[in-house]
Specification:
Structural class: alpha/beta
Number of domains: 2
Strand content: 5-15%
Number of helices: 14
Strand order of the largest sheet: 1-7-6-5-4-2-3
Order of helices and strands: HHEHEHEHEHEHEEHHHEHEHEEHEH
CATH topology of the largest domain: Aspartate Aminotransferase, domain 2
Helix content: 25-40%
CATH superfamily of the largest domain: Type I PLP-dependent aspartate aminotransferase-like (Major domain)
CATH class of the largest domain: Alpha Beta
Number of strands: 12
Largest sheet: 7 strands, mixed
CATH architecture of the largest domain: 3-Layer(aba) Sandwich
Shape: globular
Distance between the termini: 58 Å
Length: 389
């Protein structure tokens, strides 16, 4: 969808003509008779503001239906509830720390086994398939090392074993990538990030490919009750109106930042799908419509947590904080922040080194962001140079 289609997929209020979607701040709805209503009976089951958001995100991802949850993890949890004890998941090794914690410390105790593999090679998935494999779970690009997987190829594997392919599309956003069009069965977003876009709410979104899956997720949403409130639905809808323009500016900034970091003396490796040196650059170029995202990660030549902390605590415009995808630039140290729940040996195996720093580029001037990083990186290069004075 382009900006025109996105903006005009958000309806005005048919009752009053209000151009903004009203906030229906109500817990219940008056019924004409028992079971006879205007499509709404209780706010957990449905809400007019939430329905607009869910319909819009379904259109964004070309899905059958959308579902809004109170957080991204609540959205992930709802999808996992499609499984039964004894089922198995094949998941990307470089997975979001919160998802890893949920998989490992909640669902494995319930008898669901998870195999973590490098999904940048589809053959690695095929090697780990068993008769119990029911879900293939990928992020593309991944958090935080920006690994890219071939969604279309992996979907063929999923279909061959009658498993569901779930794609966390948070980093690419619907502007760059539509996994359902590439063969995915369910798409997940942390709506907190690019979709809402202003670091002022938390939300999770699930979009389903078929009516059958929609019915199952709707049942879980209503039964478990982790729904997004009307005020946050309103804010997310408002954020969607500027999604395309924000995301493209963030991609532009990230590409400039990545090119700057590649040539910096203190930087060891830069992770960004837009760089020709990225392992699956050509796949990203094809399936992400030439948009490579607003996230850049990099490691330092001095691969220690101490060096990384020096960098992330000496920036002006990049604010040290969890989360990403907002209009203000953020940075974090995944080993101690977003991925601290993953044991170090597992983190290292998946490529999350001790000095890895993740940048979320906002919509500021790229030159200011680069200048900010330049000053911050001086905090470690000066230390090295002082040793030789």
């Amino acid at each position: 969808m382009n900006a025109t289609q996105i903006i005009h997929s958000i309806p005005s209020d048919p009752l009053t003509g209000a151009i903004s979607v009203p906030i229906y701040q109500t817990s219940t709805f008056i019924q004409e008779a028992p079971g006879v209503n205007k499509g709404f009976d209780y706010a957990r089951s449905n809400n007019p503001t939430r329905k607009v958001l869910e319909d819009v995100v379904a259109k964004l991802e070309n899905g059958d239906a959308g579902f809004a949850f109170s957080t991204g993890l609540a959205a992930i949890d709802a999808v996992l509830k499609l499984l039964s004890a004894g089922d198995e998941i094949i998941a990307v090794d470089d997975i979001y720390g919160g998802a890893y914690r949920l998989f490992t410390h909640v669902y494995e105790k319930l008898g669901i086994k998870v195999h973590y593999v490098d999904t940048t090679e589809a053959s690695n998935i095929a090697k780990n398939i068993s008769s119990k494999t029911k879900l293939i779970w990928i992020e593309s690009p991944t958090n935080p090392t920006l690994k890219v997987s071939d969604i279309k190829e992996i979907s063929k594997i999923a279909k061959s074993i009658d498993a569901l392919l779930i794609v966390d599309n948070t980093f690419a956003s619907p502007i760059a990538q539509n996994p359902i069009d590439l063969g995915a069965d369910i798409v997940i977003h942390s709506g907190t990030k690019y979709i809402a876009g202003h670091s002022d709410l938390v939300a999770g979104l699930v979009i389903t490919k078929t009516a059958e899956l929609s019915e199952k997720i709707k049942f879980v949403q209503n039964a478990s009750g982790a729904v997004l409130g009307p005020w946050d639905c309103f804010l997310t809808i408002r954020g969607i109106e500027t999604l395309e323009i924000r995301y493209k500016k963030q991609c532009e900034n990230a590409f400039k930042v990545a090119k700057y970091l590649v040539n910096h003396e203190a930087v060891q490796e830069v992770y960004y799908p837009g760089l020709a040196t990225h392992k699956n650059h050509e796949i990203a170029k094809r399936q992400q419509n030439g948009l490579f995202g607003g996230i850049v990660s990099f490691t330092l030549k001095e691969d220690t947590q101490e060096e990384a902390v020096n960098v992330v605590t000496n920036t002006q415009y990049f604010k040290l904080a969890e989360s990403l995808g907002g209009v203000k630039s953020l940075l974090c140290h995944p080993a101690q922040m977003t991925h601290a729940s993953i044991p170090r040996e597992i983190r290292l195996k998946s490529g999350i080194k001790d000095s890895l720093i993740r940048l979320s580029c906002g919509i500021e001037c790229a030159e200011d962001l680069i200048s900010d990083l330049s000053e911050s990186l001086k905090s470690i290069t000066k230390e090295k140079n002082s040793l030789f004075i």
